[in-house]
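pasting for ref
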Amino acid sequence: MKGHREAILRRVEDLSGKVALVTGASAGIGAAVARSFAERGVEQGLVSRRGDDLGLDDALGLQCDVRSLEQLEGAVAATVERFGRLDILVANAGVGSYHSFLELPVEHLEEMIDVNLKGTIYAIRAALPHLLRSGEADVVSLASEAGRRGLPGEAVYCASKFGQVGLTRSLDHELREQGIRCTNVCPGGVATDFALAEGYGRPPDALAGMMTAEDVAEVVVFVVTRPRRFRILETAFRPMTEASWG
């Protein structure tokens, strides 16, 4: 019975023949998503500032700054030229800086809005013409629990993540009838270097008990492998060590 169930799950999660573009793919959640996709037969363009293909077979490493629409359009074009199509976009690139509002350096404010929010807008804008041609496409926005509730010391980070959530919810209305599903994936604490971002003041042992990047990648895989007759608008999940808000 166990072997039969595992075989069914493998068939459900088989993404062979699909092509994905993943931003922020060189480390953390993005790299975990890329590995999970590769295990399921997805061909991928992996966007990062380093342009690392992570050593994955058939992956295309693409050096790109998501703050540039032109660079993202180039990355999408290179992915489509290499693999012939685009079916999945995972907008994952993100940065964080955590201070009281007046103490937040202006350059950090601008970077969070440019990378987290504009980077997601630009990625979708660049990918959408090709996703529309797929007819059965998915847009996954890696937002955060900080995109669902305001938090002290994170006002601008929350603003950027609320923007991601609102963008993706709005696009669901626009794109559903054209065969594109739009989903916000909103994790709580994840044990990556991101959780030690400037301003948090956390020691490295603070990562103990948090979720792993692979946990989040499993949720992304779950979202894009659901039957096409329905869509998941948002997933919100937190480690057992982390209290809920509100």
